[in-house]
């Protein structure tokens, strides 16, 4: 209900409604059930080795586990996309002075939010604007041009720019398409935190006499566009959606809480480990236990006694 009230976009609101109707917990419960089945088979094989049952082979345990792993990864991706719907992606515009950062913010926002002049060092304070692309909130942050300066105010602006970069999900590093990546641009690039996605925007393609283009170079995506004319802006929209992990199936996302995403992540990791340990059943059983424990944190507890109960209810063994 809180998610529905706080929903910032129509897509987030629809997603909250689905969550409220129990769709997410139904899917998790389904996965817990499948994991429980598998645990039961593995533990029964371990605990009652004398029985005349090779249930693991008979029931195609490996394939079932692979199916669980695949579905967990899918659910995790949908939950992550949902979390993005709630919080939005933080996109920081950074680069040398005068390359057109403020112009790009204005173009994205569709209004004159930041001051644009031909004077290098125009922007001082960070300027923020939240926009929506395909229902995903994008927090765009324009920053001061990065350079050595003796100007006290500009210096503080540049410090703030680096702080914003440190908190970013994505940095759009702008440069002038007429010069390409200069040593000064390179000096900025190497200072960017490695965990942050970097997209190079070669702006002012209208002046460079080059058409809008997306290409990869040195392992990074480059977008050639013009903030002034708007040429190539669709490339930027598409790229930001890609970084956001947007599948294009907006109705597919689930609005999970942060702790749910964490639990799904652990379950996915442990199931994958279990799949690799099918040759050592006692290790496999332990990973499956951890996977199911993580999932059960979302839906409710499931204890060792519960599992034993399941085993005895299905098999006539151990008497
Ligand atoms: N022709 C052309 N001019 C542009 C383009 N983008 C920005 N400009 C011009 O370049 C100059 C600098 O633009 P700004 O947006 O202020 O650049 P900035 O990176 O924010 O600069 P600082 O705030 O000083 O760091 C202005 O005169 C803009 O009109 C573009 O795509 N094409
Ligand atoms: Mg500016």
As a percent range, the share of helical residues equals 40-55%
Largest sheet report: 7 strands, mixed
Number of domains: 2
Q: CATH homologous superfamily of the largest domain - what is it?
A: P-loop containing nucleotide triphosphate hydrolases
Number of helices: 13
Radius of gyration: 26 Å
Bound ligand species: guanosine-5'-triphosphate, magnesium ion
Coarse morphology: elongated
**Termini gap:** 49 Å
Bin the strand percentage: 5-15%
Structural class: alpha/beta
Strand order of the largest sheet: 2-3-1-4-5-7-6
Could you tell me the CATH topology label of the largest domain: Rossmann fold
Question: Low-confidence runs (pLDDT<50, min 5 residues)?
Answer: none
Order of helices and strands: HHHHHEHEEHEHEHEEHHHH
Rounded mean pLDDT is 87
Under CATH at level 1, the class of the largest domain stands as Alpha Beta
CATH A-level architecture of the largest domain = 3-Layer(aba) Sandwich
In total, the number of strands is: 7
Explain what the structure shows.
A hairpin with a 2-residue loop joins strand 2 (127-133) and strand 3. The protein has 319 residues and is of the alpha/beta class. The radius of gyration is 26 Å and the shape is elongated. The model has no long low-confidence stretch (mean pLDDT 87). Strands 2-3-1-4-5-7-6 form a seven-stranded mixed β-sheet, sandwiched between helices. Helix 3 (23-47) crosses helix 13 and helix 5 (61-87) runs antiparallel to helix 11. The protein has helices at 2-6, 10-20, 23-47, 55-58, 61-87, 101-109, 152-166, 183-191, 205-208, 233-243, 258-276, 281-299, 304-314; strands at 89-95, 127-133, 136-142, 170-176, 197-203, 213-217, 220-224. The chain has two domains: 2-85 and 252-314, Four Helix Bundle (Hemerythrin (Met), subunit A); 89-243, Rossmann fold (3-Layer(aba) Sandwich), CATH 3.40.50.
């Amino acid at each position: 209900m809180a998610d529905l009230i706080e929903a910032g976009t129509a897509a987030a609101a629809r997603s909250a409604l689905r969550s409220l109707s129990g769709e997410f917990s139904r899917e998790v419960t389904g996965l817990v059930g499948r994991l429980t089945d598998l645990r039961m088979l593995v533990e029964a094989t371990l605990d009652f080795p004398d029985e005349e049952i090779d249930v693991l082979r008979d029931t195609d345990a490996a394939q079932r586990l692979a199916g669980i792993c695949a579905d967990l990864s899918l659910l995790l991706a949908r939950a992550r996309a949902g979390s993005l719907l709630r919080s939005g992606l933080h996109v920081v515009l950074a680069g040398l002075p005068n390359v057109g950062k403020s112009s790009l913010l204005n173009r994205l926002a569709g209004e004159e939010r930041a001051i644009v002049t031909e004077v290098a060092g125009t922007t001082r304070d960070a300027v923020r604007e939240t926009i929506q692309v395909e229902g995903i909130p994008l927090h765009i942050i324009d920053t001061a041009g990065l350079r050595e300066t003796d100007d006290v105010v500009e210096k503080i602006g540049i410090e703030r720019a680096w702080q914003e970069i440190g908190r970013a999900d994505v940095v759009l590093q702008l440069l002038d398409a007429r010069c390409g990546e200069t040593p000064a641009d390179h000096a900025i690039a190497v200072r960017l935190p490695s965990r942050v996605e970097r997209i190079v925007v070669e702006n002012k393609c209208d002046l460079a006499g080059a058409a809008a283009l997306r290409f990869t170079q040195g392992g990074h995506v480059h977008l050639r566009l013009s903030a002034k004319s708007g040429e190539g802006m669709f490339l930027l929209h598409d790229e930001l959606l890609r970084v956001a992990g947007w599948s294009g199936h907006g109705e597919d996302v689930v609005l999970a809480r942060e702790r749910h995403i964490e639990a799904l992540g652990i379950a996915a990791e442990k199931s994958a480990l279990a799949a690799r340990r099918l040759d050592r059943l006692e290790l496999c059983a332990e990973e499956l236990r951890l996977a199911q424990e993580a999932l059960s944190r979302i839906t409710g507890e499931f204890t060792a006694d519960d599992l034993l109960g399941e085993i005895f209810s299905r098999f006539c063994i151990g008497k």
